[in-house]
Amino acid sequence: MTKPVEAPRVALCVPAAGAGARMGGPKALQPLDGRSFVEHILATMRDAGVAPRYVVGRDAAPALRAACARGGARLLVNPDPDRGMLSSIHVCLDAIGREEAAERAPTGMATIDALFVAPVDCPRVRAATVATLVAAFARTGASIVVPRFGERRGHPTLFARALFAELRAAPLDVGARAVVRAHAPDRVEVSVDDPAVLDDFDRPAPDDRASR
Predict the structure, then answer these.
(1) Which CATH number do you get for residue 24?
(2) Given CA atoms 86, 92, 95, 96 in this order, what sign does their dihedral have?
């Protein structure tokens, strides 16, 4: 009998340490269809089986901490958020490294196989879309998996563990895009019927956008 292939263990990083000046406050806490942006993302990732889940903020504000608790996520703080989004990914990778070391010693638990980076201003992606991306990673073993709607690539982006060191070494002023571009030949782009992968909320939006 063939041994079933174990599903990859995919973690989530939501970089949410921006000041949100154009939004009038932190993007993570902006309301959309009765919930905050970050709660939408965390619920989607939970429904898709993505865990552990991390949110990286610029501080541990009570409202953000409560939203993370409701979404089953750990809130991390970026000590220098003005360095950009990639610095928040570094904070998340550091936390993963510490927690893996603690897990492996007593229990032998598996390490993280890949990391989703989900920008906080892209909150409406469907759980089915996320599951499709994880399945593509499991099937292909690609170093990077991204969704595509029409002719455009979107979010979230899945990075295989093999690229964690490159994410750490990428220029802060270019960010994770440098790694995505460097691996264009072995990147897998998955066509999805989910226009929300192209969302980019930089200004307050009325709640009715959630139903479009």
Answers:
(1) 3.90.550.10
(2) negative
